[in-house]
């Protein structure tokens, strides 16, 4: 084997033009979501989901050119899932060769204190992500599996890991530190990491672009409200606080998660209800939140129940809103001056009642919602506050896949220049 001098080695990234597409992958514990993205124009060229991996029947959907291909068949593992996805690109379109795939961007939930930015994947990076699994036992292992399988099946394309936690690596010590014994916390990595960072970063940047303002001069509160929900305080494009903590359990009331809860509840349930740690884990993460209070975690169904006079549904909504309002107030204090409150993700983008309820009564903080503007249905970023308010309230659709695609391009281009 001949090894060329460094200056004569072929650049392994030079074959990928800056105007190609990026395949974005999100490997969950029993699912694979993927999207082929044009990082320049921002549109999704094709997308798909493969659910119920490892169960008797997998559900497969692939969308391209306005058509959706759906089928059901056993999907044994993530390797089979990715092979099916790649086969659908060849079968239904577009072929990855025609799409000129520039990179594969992988969403990774937990980067711990190791990864503060997206990184080009190699064997060492995979090992480090795997070693962080104790911090995210439900998320990092399938993330690693997806990366390993994708590298095996697409060996000639650069792979990039983009971390949910990276945007919050800038949190000041006062925000990231728990008041826990220092030695215990340091030994076991116990601190606030934050999640949904790709979305919070994208939305705070999008706010500046839409308003034609320099991000360095903007203070923004971002409310990412989906089945998982989180809030962030962003000063000049830099995150200074966020609601999720060491895990995605802390903070806002969510679809099935408690959010903030007295830690002594764990001791109480273990001692008095005889529940194991694993049972309490499932209770807090899967059987609580809006679903635990009302029986449903779909906000459309919750609204139907409220309109029908269901008291549990009304209580769930009120608890959800109360927690949100507390965080808006707290982050107003953290930032000192708030220029924009931005709603995003499924509930934040689509539920007019949630947006109105969060802001109701906060006029002393310069916040209000205009009913007509709030009622507008649109996929575009928009202001929904009246003209007189000192703080803008906006709806900004998040595009996490596009953000991952663009960060992947930046990493590969940097690697190409460094070569």
TrEMBL record:
Q: Which InterPro entries match?
A: Ac/propionate_kinase (IPR004372), Aliphatic_acid_kin_short-chain (IPR000890), Aliphatic_acid_kinase_CS (IPR023865), ATPase_NBD (IPR043129)
Q: In which pathway does it act?
A: Metabolic intermediate biosynthesis; acetyl-CoA biosynthesis; acetyl-CoA from acetate: step 1/2
Q: Name the protein family.
A: Belongs to the acetokinase family.
Catalytic residues at: 164
Cofactor(s) required for function per UniProt = Mg(2+); Mn(2+)
Q: Which residues bind ATP?
A: 33, 224-228, 298-300, 346-350
Cofactor note as given: Mg(2+). Can also accept Mn(2+).
List this protein's GO terms for biological process. Answer: acetate metabolic process; acetyl-CoA biosynthetic process
Q: Known SUPFAM superfamilies for this protein?
A: Actin-like ATPase domain (SSF53067)
Descriptive protein name: Acetate kinase
Protein source organism = Cellulosimicrobium cellulans (Arthrobacter luteus)
Q: Which GO terms describe its cellular component?
A: cytoplasm
């Amino acid at each position: 084997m001949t090894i060329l001098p460094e200056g004569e080695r072929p650049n392994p990234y030079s074959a990928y033009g800056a105007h190609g597409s990026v395949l974005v992958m999100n490997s969950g514990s029993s699912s694979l979501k993927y999207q082929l993205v044009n990082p320049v124009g921002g549109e999704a060229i094709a997308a798909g989901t493969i659910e119920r991996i490892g169960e008797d029947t997998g559900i497969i959907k692939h969308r391209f050119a306005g058509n959706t291909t759906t089928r059901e068949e056993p999907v044994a593992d993530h390797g089979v899932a990715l092979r099916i996805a790649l086969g659908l690109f060849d079968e239904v379109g577009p072929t990855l060769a025609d799409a000129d795939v520039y990179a594969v961007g992988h969403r990774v939930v937990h980067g711990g204190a190791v990864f503060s930015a997206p990184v080009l994947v190699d064997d060492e990076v995979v090992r480090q992500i795997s070693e962080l699994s104790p911090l995210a036992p439900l998320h990092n292992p399938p993330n690693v599996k997806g990366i390993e399988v994708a590298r095996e099946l697409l060996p000639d394309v650069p792979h990039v890991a983009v971390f949910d936690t990276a945007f919050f690596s800038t949190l000041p010590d006062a925000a990231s530190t728990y008041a826990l014994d220092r030695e215990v916390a340091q030994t076991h990595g116990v601190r606030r990491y934050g999640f949904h960072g790709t979305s919070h970063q994208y939305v705070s940047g999008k706010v500046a672009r839409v308003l034609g303002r320099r991000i360095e001069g903007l203070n923004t509160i971002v409310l990412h409200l989906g089945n998982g929900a989180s809030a962030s305080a962003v000063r000049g494009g830099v995150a200074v606080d966020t609601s999720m903590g060491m895990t995605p359990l802390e903070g806002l009331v969510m679809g099935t998660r408690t959010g903030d809860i007295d830690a002594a509840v764990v001791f109480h349930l273990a001692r008095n209800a005889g529940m194991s740690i694993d049972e309490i884990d499932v209770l807090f993460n899967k059987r609580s939140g809006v679903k635990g209070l009302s029986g449903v975690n779909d906000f459309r169904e919750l609204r139907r129940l409220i309109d029908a006079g269901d008291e549990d549904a009304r209580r769930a909504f009120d608890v959800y809103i109360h927690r949100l309002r507390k965080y808006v107030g707290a982050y107003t204090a953290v930032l000192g001056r708030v220029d924009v409150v931005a709603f995003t993700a499924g509930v934040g983008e689509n539920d007019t009642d949630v947006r109105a309820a969060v802001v109701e009564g906060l006029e002393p903080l310069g916040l209000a919602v205009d009913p007509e503007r709030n009622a507008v249905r649109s996929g575009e970023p928009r202001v929904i506050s009246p003209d007189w308010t000192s703080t803008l309230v906006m709806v900004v659709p998040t595009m996490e896949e596009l953000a991952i695609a663009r960060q992947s391009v930046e990493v590969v281009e940097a690697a190409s220049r460094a070569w």
